[in-house]
Amino acid sequence: MYGEGRSAGFELTDSMTGEIYFTMDVDVNRPVPSTKIYEVEGFWFRGAAPSRMVADKLSVISTGKVFRRIKDVADLYYLSKVFRFDPTDVRWALENSKRTLGNFADFLYGTEALQHAYEKFRFEGDVSKPSFEEVYESVKIYIKDFYNSLN
């Protein structure tokens, strides 16, 4: 259920088997972000541009919320595998969505607590769970332009 500062969450499933094809979050009552057309197994839809998704997740993991939202770290790991990171586009998306960045201190220096949160996190379906080290190092490299610009 959506609410103030919370997206609506949907699961798209096979009505016969109940198999989950994919999940999606939909922002409600927010400015329309830049969009992109996506296709999943023949189903076409318009969704947030990758730069907007990265900006939203960066705004979370740059603060102490990262421990409660470890899923955003995992999402950035997967985004890093399929989308090139363009700092200019992400900065524009941050500004356009009125999101701000923290100092990344918890992400950079709270690795023990992050690993604990990651180990407790459960992936849905048959998705194999990469090691914390692989996820953390990939994300750290992917977002380095942002935490380096704060120092």
What does this protein look like?
The chain is α+β, with helices and mostly antiparallel strands. It is built from 7 helices and 4 strands. A two-stranded antiparallel sheet has the order 1-2. A two-stranded antiparallel ribbon has the order 3-4. Helix 1 packs antiparallel against helix 2, helix 1 crosses helix 3 and helix 2 packs across helix 6. The longest helix is centred in the middle third of the chain and has 13 residues. It is globular.
Tags for this model:
alpha+beta, two-stranded antiparallel sheet, 7 helices, 44% helix
Q: What's the total number of strands?
A: 4
Q: Strand order, biggest sheet?
A: 1-2
Residue stretches low in confidence (pLDDT < 50, at least 5 long) are: none
The helix content is 40-55%
Biggest sheet character: 2 strands, antiparallel
Globally, the shape reads globular
**Helix count?**
7
Strand content: 15-25%
Distance between the termini: 38 Å
Oligomer: single chain
Rounded mean pLDDT score: 86
How many whole angstroms does the radius of gyration measure? 16 Å
How are the SSEs placed, and which strands pair?
Blueprint: E1 8-13, E2 20-26, E3 35-40, E4 43-48, H1 50-61, H2 70-82, H3 87-96, H4 105-109, H5 111-120, H6 132-142, H7 144-148
Antiparallel strand pairs: 1-2, 3-4
Helix pairs in contact: 1-2, 1-3, 2-6
